[in-house]
Amino acid sequence: MHIFYGKASLIDYLKSIKTVQSTIGFVPTMGALHQGHLALMQKSLLENANTVVSIFVNPTQFNNLEDLAKYPRTLEEDVKKLTALNPNIILYAPSVEDIYDGKPLSQSFDFDGLENQMEGKFRPGHFNGVGTIVKRLFEIVEPANAYFGEKDFQQLQIVKKMVAKNHLQVNVIGCPIYREANNLAMSSRNERLSTEERDEAAIIYKTLTAVKEKFASNSTTTISEWVQKSFNKNTRFTLEYFVIADEATLLPCTRKNKNKKYRAFIAVLVNNIRLIDTISLN
Known about the structure:
Layout: E1 2-4, H1 7-17, E2 24-29, H2 35-47, E3 50-55, H3 65-70, H4 75-85, E4 90-92, H5 96-100, H6 119-122, H7 126-141, E5 145-149, H8 153-165, E6 171-175, H9 195-200, H10 202-215, H11 220-232, E7 238-246, E8 262-270, E9 273-280
Parallel strand pairs: 1-4, 2-3, 2-5, 3-4, 5-6
Antiparallel strand pairs: 7-8, 8-9
Helix pairs in contact: 7-8, 10-11
C-alpha cells in the first residue's frame, strides 16, 4: 500500500491521481485502529475512487499530558489492518514536525458556542486543537468527502461548523457508532481497560437505552437525577457528565420542543480513562 510520512510527497501523489471524476474520501484517525474506524473506511471505499487515511496523535487537542503520553500508538498493527481491508488505501502517517512545521500550536476558532458544551467544559482548548488539525489535514488531502463516527457527535458538529465558516469544499459525513459485543462504543481508549472494566462498561449503553425509553414521559431533570443516582451506586465508574441536548446547538434541553431533535451525551471515568457515548432520543 502507499504510505506517506511527509505532506509534500502525499500532495504530489494525490495531484498525480486526481481527475474530475475521481473523488477522494478521507478518514482522519489517531490510530490504534478498531472495527469502527474500518467501517468508516469501508464506506469511503464504496463512495470514492480513492481513500486516504491519516494516523496522527495530535498533541494540540490533549489538555491532559498524561492522556497524550498513554494514548496507544500501534502503527505497525494499523498498517496490517489497512492492508487487509484494502491495499489501495493511501496512508498518511506524519510526524508532529511535518504537520506543524515545528510549532504545535492551536488556532483559535469560533464555533458559535458548540465548543462550550460538554467536552468543551471538561477539556479546555480541546476543540481548538481538533479544528486546527482537521483544517490542516483537509488542506493537505483536499478530500471531497470526509468520514467521522457519531460517537464523537460534538466533534462531528464542530467539524461541520469549521468547514462552513471557512468555506471549505468538503462534505462531512457522520457514520453510526460501531459497538463491541456488550454494546460499549468502540474506542481506541478501550484498549487501556482491563477485561473486567471492559465488561462492566456495558452499563454506559444500558443507561443510555433506559434514558431513551424514559425520554417520552419524563422531564430532562428527572432523567438526569436518575442517571446520577445510578452511577452514585457504582463504585467503579464515575459520571463526569450527563446531558440531554439539542442536536443542532448542543445546548442543554430544559423544555422539550416537538420540532427539535434531542440526543443524550455521557462521559464516564474508570481508572482515569474517559469513555464517552451518545444516543439519539427522538
